[in-house]
Amino acid sequence: MGEIDNPTKTYAIRGIPLPPDVVTKTKTIPYAPGTPSRLDISKFFPPENDFLGRQWTLLVLALERFKAMKVDERLSYFQVAGIHAYPLQSWDGAPPPHPDPTRHVPDGADPYGGYCNHNTVAFPTWHRPYMLLFEQLIWEHMKVIIKEWKLEGTQLADWEKAAEQWRLPYWDWARKQTYSDKYSLPYVLTVDRVAIYPPNGDTLVVDNPFWGFENPQKHDDGKPRKFNDMPKTPVDMTKWNINNTSSNPVSKLLPESRTWGECSGVSRYGIFTDDNGKTYRGLEGVNNFSEANVIFGNFEDHWYNPYSSKKVPDRKERFKFNPPGTLADAVNRLFSPQYSDTWGTFASTKWFAESAQDISTGYMSLEYIHNNVHNLCGGSQANKAGLGHMSDVPVAAFDPVFWLHHCNIDRLLSMWQSLNWNSWWNIPEPPNDNDNVPDVKPDAPLQPFHTSETTTPDQGFYTSNDARDWTKLRYSYDDLVPKPEAVEPNGTLNEARYKTDLAAHIRTLYPSTIEYYQKLYEDRAIENKEFFGPNNTEAMSWNDYIINVIYDRYALNGTSYVIEFWLGGADNDPNSTFSFKENFIGQVYSFGGLVPASEENPSGCANCGSQKAKKVLSRAQVPLTIPIISQALDGKYEHLNTTRGRDVVPYLEKHLHWRFVQTGGEVKPASDFPNTTISVWRGTGKPQEGTSRDGQPLPPVYAQYKPQYSPTEHKEGGLSESDELLGRAHAPEFNFRGF
Question: What terms describe the molecular function in GO for this protein (predicted)?
Fold first, then answer.
């Protein structure tokens, strides 16, 4: 498909050209009015108007055309997806990722292990030019399609404008989908055929390109080849084989490999084994969207809703009072003032031991939430719900949902930047290089993404500084469009007003713990002073409970695993807790899959290898408050009936349990994860003072957290009173945030 490629030079990633009337009005926060916005995918399918219908039609046809390109073409879907990791080949002439700067690589060894950028502070910025590349290539295909139609006059102008104004859509997984009234996959991922509206006036029903992806290289009978069986003739494409990870056994259920090379298409909850990994089903690519939606729903449906009784028979009224979903609550907290307010705590799961006595809420990060969504989309249990590509780093980008998901990650990044523009690499990492892997700097190259065409492909890469301002990359987001009242007469932003409006908008988008509390405060059937405590009732505040987790992403040599958290059951009886799915309250997903590089395996993931060797740990957070409220209200949980600390902490001691589940579905002993530290914290949440200019409330604020030892003291992996950093004896050294 040579129309869009000049293989003699690097491919310049610049974004889609802007309309001629766009003028930059940035003071501090990026602002260029008229810049086309990235929209939620639900606005395109089904399209809300004719203009969106044209954009949707172009998107469907362009993505299908893109996916059909041969695997040996530089700008093919296969190679662009492969930048993320497999098949572990250099892209666009870029050198392989740098080996660990703290480790000698033997002469002749290949340090290459994929352009892996996870568990680093450059996680969100590395993915920004990656999304821009994908967006630009879709647009390039749109132009070719319009040219092939041979349109004229106003019809040509309409379609060219549709392409010019189009930007990559996102999927906001932290908002309920309108077609289901639930947290779920977007509607476009649940149908294998879709309607499009080409310029001849006919409505056509075609294959849905978001349904999946299969190997574009076919056998003579037209069936797709396995990803580890690329053709040798007439052109040798075997360098693009996706080989199984036989050097990294996964579990008893998947003893030899993750089988990605045996697949001919991508799956969502579609790969199963019934005989401990001897054979598999679903390798041709299966979209089990209904199972994915069940899993997503688990993070909302299990919470007790006191308003779903006959007291409120109208379904729409009941819907208003549904407890917030876990993802919505997590995102809301991410935007709460000072919750994760440094670049490092917001951007990455990377853990610094030196910060242990200073941060309490900063275990919540954009990357951690992102990791969980990958697992929710793909599935990681071949013996139960099913296994899918989105759950494994090496192959996640081959699933079309990857691009919708990561576009949303970039959207959340842009929103956070708008509120925290000066928090850019603002806290340097602790000076402890002997025990840590140095952080990526904002001027470090983000390989393999080139900013311009060049004949020297080892130069001219994006940096995080280059990617900081999204308007310079020629796109914006619908959520970032200011209200007219926030624009000054000279066309610039009233930035204080703009930030307040955006914060209020975020509170509206993502219902959180505060919505649950406020509805309960209004319920006369609940004795507030007894349920919340007299001090909280007077202050309209609440006890807030969180689980902070320090974990080793490489505990299983890079293989992904889940730490599942469960609450309920009989006293001190984990088996009874694990017996009822309603007791499942949250998870931490390690999101691995690449074998770390080592002296014995120098061809592994270099970034992963250096982190493993240096014992770089990761952090995560599971909010506990909503499940605690739910269980205190639900008569089925007879051991808890208030949210007061005197009742909750002993309840957690007897009823909070966790387990480690490896990719494939095997439960592993906690002793396999010796670097894990799980702690329970109790703090205070309360409404933020003030409102937006038009009276809308702002996200709540949280502070005054202290570790609670008894819920974790005598459990494997749990924080103890004698901990060398957070033990009771070190309390005078704690510097946790207050109000």
Answer: metal ion binding; tyrosinase activity
The 10s digit of each residue's pLDDT in 502-532 is 999 999 999 999 988 888 887 767 788 899 9
State residue 380's pLDDT score: 84
Q: Please give the span between the terminal C-alpha atoms of the chain, in angstroms, as a whole number.
A: 59
Give the ranges where 522-644 is alpha helix by DSSP (H).
Answer: 528-532, 534-539, 574-578, 606-613, 625-633
Tell me the C-alpha distance between 415 and 425, whole Å.
17
Using DSSP's 3-state secondary structure scheme, residue 469 falls into coil
Task: Say which residues have a Cβ less than 8 Å from residue 156's Cβ, sequence separation at least 6.
Answer: 146
Name the residue type at position 118: H
Tens-digit pLDDT profile for residues 596-640: 444 444 444 445 444 444 467 999 999 999 999 999 988 889 999
- Secondary structure (3-state) at 623: strand
Q: Decide: 560 and 590 in contact? Cβ < 8 Å.
A: yes
Q: To the nearest 10°, report the CA torsion of 46, 52, 58, 60.
A: -20
- In the three-class reduction of DSSP (H, G, I as helix; E, B as strand; rest coil), residue 516 is classed as helix
Listed range (302-306, 635-639, 692-696) with the worst mean pLDDT: 302-306
DSSP state of 96: P
- Asked if 233 contacts 587 with a C-beta cutoff of 8 angstroms, the reply is no
**pLDDT value, residue 429:** 65
Q: For residue 191, give Cα distances in angstroms to 5, 198, 207, 263, 289.
A: 32, 20, 9, 22, 9
d(CA 102, CA 112): 16
Q: Are the C-beta atoms of 711 and 545 separated by less than 8 Å? A: no
The answer to whether 9 touches 455, Cβ cutoff 8 Å, is yes
CB 347 within 8 A of CB 359: no
